[in-house]
Write a structure and sequence with these properties.
- Keywords: Acyltransferase, Transferase.
- This is Acyltransferase.
- One of its GO terms (molecular function) is acyltransferase activity.
- It comes from Legionella pneumophila.
- There is one protein chain.
- This protein is an all-alpha fold.
- Among the domains are: about 30-55 and about 100-115, no CATH class; about 60-100, no CATH class.
- About 65% of the residues lie in helices and about 0% in strands.
- It has helices spanning about 1-50, 55-80, 105-115.
- The longest helix is centred in the N-terminal third of the chain and has 48 residues, at about 1-50.
- It is rod-shaped.
- The N and C termini lie far apart (about 90 Å).
């Protein structure tokens, strides 16, 4: 009787320890799912709110350069001086070098971060003219 009780007690402890390891696996899977949901939310937000791409940046830079150049022309005419600068003097060539809206790449990096491994590859910077 005593041996049967000990055997039953050992089996109960083994079953409880098996459930404890399953609980850890379930929690980790749930965390991974929450991480991926966060990545999808960030992707949706990026797609809805991000408009800073090469074409828009170039258009804004050209408009700003034109406005500043016209202001310069007006000042020179009022002062009676010579025009020494051109339109390109007011355009910053590095202004649109880095475009911050790459929603797909951000999503991929976020998703890979959920698994703990981030794979990177080098690629040239886009040139906006």
């Amino acid at each position: 009787m005593n041996t049967a009780f000990r055997l039953l007690f050992c089996l109960i402890i083994l079953e409880l320890s098996a459930c404890a390891t399953l609980k850890n696996k379930i929690v980790q899977h749930k965390t991974l799912s929450q991480c991926q949901q966060t990545c999808f939310q960030q992707l949706d937000y990026c797609k809805q709110n991000c408009t800073n791409n090469c074409r828009d940046c170039s258009n804004k830079a050209n408009y700003s350069a034109r406005e500043n150049y016209l202001e310069y022309l007006h000042e020179v005419k009022v002062q009676g001086g010579y025009i020494t600068r051109g339109l390109q003097s007011y355009r910053d060539p590095l202004q649109c070098r880095k475009v911050t809206c790459n929603c797909a790449a951000d999503f991929n990096a976020c998703n890979q971060g959920c698994s703990g491994v981030i794979q990177k590859r080098l690629q040239p910077v886009p040139y906006c003219s």
